[in-house]
């Protein structure tokens, strides 16, 4: 029976190692990160072919399918436009007045890398990478479906900052600084389209509103679209860590009120094309730590047949290999002499769960904790709780570990007490082995009688590791997916808990604590098992060399508490055994 217990413990350890290796294979790529364009250089490109296809549009067009027939758009030569610069407390972005697309976003609160002072570039359009957020009006009278290509909007000025913002009272009574950037396009027929970008200080969501003022003599018909267009370049959110390159899921995602979260890999954009109508929903492109998403607005409109307003969610690949996720509204009618508004929200920034949850159902699930997400979610909430008090993610991990150990204390104490009894009766078992020699059946019978007499369960030694395995793996995903821990320092040389220890000090400490913990456990009587157990701390130390420092910190604290717990239990069991022997004599 003791042999089975040993093999069970070994098996649990190797299963943990195997699962960690699988996580490596999934999360660590080998491609090099695409260099980012310097912040000072922003190039505008003609994107007439980047919009949704009308029914008569060419196959090379990237525009969504409109519900009405329009004339084929005529391509115009590429031109360089004066971009509109918008700078808030969170963003520095650029809007192309031709079409009103956002062609570059820099996130001012997030660095490009730990050692860089450059802001992280979320969206960009240059020779190295294409990743833009497009929107407009298509359909029968939509200016983006004109035979002249994308509309050229008029702007009051080409630079906006928070100094241009106005104080607006919110529903909760608080005052917010709101910056509006209006773009105006007028048709010869007397239709005026005002495309307004609205930014709120401290918030990442951007409201993109199209107001159609119909001063013509005819009914105006069109549809709003919003889409994300991205090439197949590498995830710039990846970071190099020694021989590994960190990166998680890169691809499309979408959700509806019925199906909150779905993934769609870029490679499957053609084979598993998204084409869903939903009352509410969202489309996104997901990368490590960051996400861009379009969320159609709730217009409280009904279509002509009385059906509720629904948006069409779509995915496609253009002829030049661009990946496109977007939405189109139903046909909107604006009678002569009236006006109407249609809007959507664009989120392009860090995957902050609290903000994403309020935007759309399921959007917060782009913070993908994998199949252990219930445990990971609880761990993250615990980390947040301690961080709100302490203000340091490293110490939060330490206090979270103490809390987890306190919750598991009753179960682990029973297990460690059984292991301590195994350690105490080890000399008796060795004597029995020598006495009965090759008579394995007699030895097994006597050993089982000894276990029963001493109330020992040899399999209980597996319990602590089995309990820690899912917690350890879930914490791995928390550290990998939670942008709050990106570049989060602890103390001294640990300046990024989501990256490996640059000096390998924590993994070595972890190896020492694992060795000490093994010495407190009953030692194997089989020479081969004894050798394997001596090698295990070395193997796990090597594994931990390239894992996030926060994860290694968790294991160190967990091992240290376990050592104290086992030491006290061992002393108590040895004392009880000694008292029992003295009483018997």
Distance between the termini: 30 Å
Summarize the main sheet. Answer: 11 strands, mixed
Q: Kindly report the average pLDDT value.
A: 82
Counting DSSP H or I runs of 4 or more residues, the number of helices is 10
Number of DSSP-assigned strands: 24
Radius of gyration over all CA atoms, rounded: 31 Å
Share of residues in helices = 25-40%
Can you tell me the CATH class of the largest domain?
Answer: Mainly Beta
Uncertain residue ranges: 1-7, 24-48, 54-60, 68-80, 301-306
Global outline: elongated
Note down, in words, how this protein is organized.
One of its GO terms (molecular function) is membrane insertase activity. Residues 84-380 form the Membrane insertase YidC N-terminal domain. Residues 54-77 are annotated as: Disordered. It comes from Acinetobacter venetianus (strain ATCC 31012 / DSM 23050 / BCRC 14357 / CCUG 45561 / CIP 110063 / KCTC 2702 / LMG 19082 / RAG-1). It is a multi-pass membrane protein. The protein has 585 residues and is α+β, with helices and mostly antiparallel strands. It has two domains: 42-234 and 246-368, Beta-galactosidase, Chain A, domain 5; 376-584, no CATH class. It has helices at residues 2-27, 353-359, 373-390, 393-424, 426-436, 440-454, 463-481, 505-520, 527-544, 549-584; strands at residues 28-29, 84-87, 91-96, 101-111, 119-125, 130-138, 154-155, 159-161, 166-169, 175-186, 191-200, 206-214, 220-230, 239-241, 244-246, 251-255, 262-264, 275-278, 282-286, 290-296, 311-317, 323-328, 332-334, 339-350. Strands 2, 3, 4, 5, 6, 8, 13, 18, 21, 22 and 23 form an eleven-stranded mixed beta sheet that branches. Strands 7, 9, 10, 11, 12, 16, 17, 19, 20 and 24 form a ten-stranded antiparallel beta sheet that branches. Strand 21 and strand 22 form a beta hairpin. Helix 3 (373-390) packs across helix 7 (463-481). Mean pLDDT is 82; it is low at 1-7, 24-48, 54-60, 68-80 and 301-306.
């Amino acid at each position: 029976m003791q042999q089975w217990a040993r093999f069970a413990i070994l098996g649990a350890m190797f299963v943990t190692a195997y699962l960690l290796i699988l996580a490596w294979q999934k999360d660590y790529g080998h491609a090099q990160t695409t260099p980012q364009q310097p912040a000072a250089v922003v190039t505008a490109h003609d994107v007439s072919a980047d919009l949704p296809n009308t029914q008569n549009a060419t196959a090379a067009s990237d525009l969504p399918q409109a519900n009405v027939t329009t004339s084929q758009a005529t391509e115009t030569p590429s031109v360089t436009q004066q971009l509109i610069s918008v700078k808030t407390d969170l963003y520095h972005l650029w809007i192309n007045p031709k079409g009103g697309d956002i062609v570059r976003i820099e996130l001012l609160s997030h660095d490009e890398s730990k050692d860089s002072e450059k802001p992280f570039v979320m969206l960009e359009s240059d020779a190295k990478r294409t990743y833009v957020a497009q929107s407009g009006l298509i359909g029968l009278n939509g200016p983006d479906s004109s035979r002249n290509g994308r509309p050229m909007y008029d702007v009051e000025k080409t630079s906006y900052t928070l100094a241009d913002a106005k104080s607006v009272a919110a529903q909760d009574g608080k005052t917010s600084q709101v910056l509006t950037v209006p773009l105006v396009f007028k048709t010869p027929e007397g239709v005026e389209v005002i495309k307004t970008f609205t930014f709120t200080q401290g918030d990442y969501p951007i409201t993109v509103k199209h107001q159609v003022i119909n001063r013509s003599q005819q009914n105006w018909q069109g549809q709003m679209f919003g889409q994300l267009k991205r090439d197949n370049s590498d995830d710039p959110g990846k970071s190099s860590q020694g021989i590994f390159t960190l990166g998680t899921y890169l691809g499309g995602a979408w959700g509806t009120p019925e199906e909150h979260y779905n993934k769609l890999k870029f490679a499957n954009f053609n084979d598993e094309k998204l084409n869903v109508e939903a009352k509410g929903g969202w489309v996104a492109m997901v990368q490590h730590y960051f996400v861009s998403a379009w969320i159609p607005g709730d217009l409280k409109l009904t279509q002509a047949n009385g059906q509720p307003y629904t948006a069409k969610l779509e995915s496609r690949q253009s002829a030049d290999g661009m990946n496109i996720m977007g939405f189109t509204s139903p046909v909107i009618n604006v009678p002569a002499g009236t006006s109407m508004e249609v809007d959507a929200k664009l989120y392009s920034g860090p995957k902050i769960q609290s903000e994403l949850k309020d935007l759309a159902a399921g959007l917060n699930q782009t913070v993908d904790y994998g199949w252990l997400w219930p445990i990971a979610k609880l761990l993250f909430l615990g980390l947040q709780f301690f961080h709100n008090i302490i203000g340091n993610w490293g110490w939060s991990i330490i206090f979270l570990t103490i809390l987890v150990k306190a919750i598991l204390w009753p179960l682990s104490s029973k297990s460690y007490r059984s292991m301590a009894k195994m350690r105490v009766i080890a000399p008796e078992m060795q004597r029995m082995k020598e006495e009965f020699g090759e008579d394995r059946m007699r030895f097994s019978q006597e050993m089982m009688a000894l276990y029963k007499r001493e109330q020992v369960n040899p399999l209980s030694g597996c319990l602590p590791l089995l309990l820690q395995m899912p917690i350890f793996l879930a914490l791995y995903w928390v550290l990998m997916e939670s942008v709050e821990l990106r570049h989060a320092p602890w103390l001294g040389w640990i300046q990024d808990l989501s990256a490996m220890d640059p000096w390998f000090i924590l993994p070595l400490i972890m190896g020492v604590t694992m060795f000490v913990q093994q010495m407190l456990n009953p030692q194997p009587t089989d020479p081969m098992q004894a050798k394997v157990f001596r090698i295990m701390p070395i193997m796990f130390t090597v594994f931990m060399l390239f894992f996030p420092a926060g994860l290694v910190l968790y294991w160190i604290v967990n091992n240290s508490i376990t050592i104290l717990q086992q030491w006290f239990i061992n002393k108590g069991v040895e004392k009880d055994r000694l008292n029992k022997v003295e009483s018997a004599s």
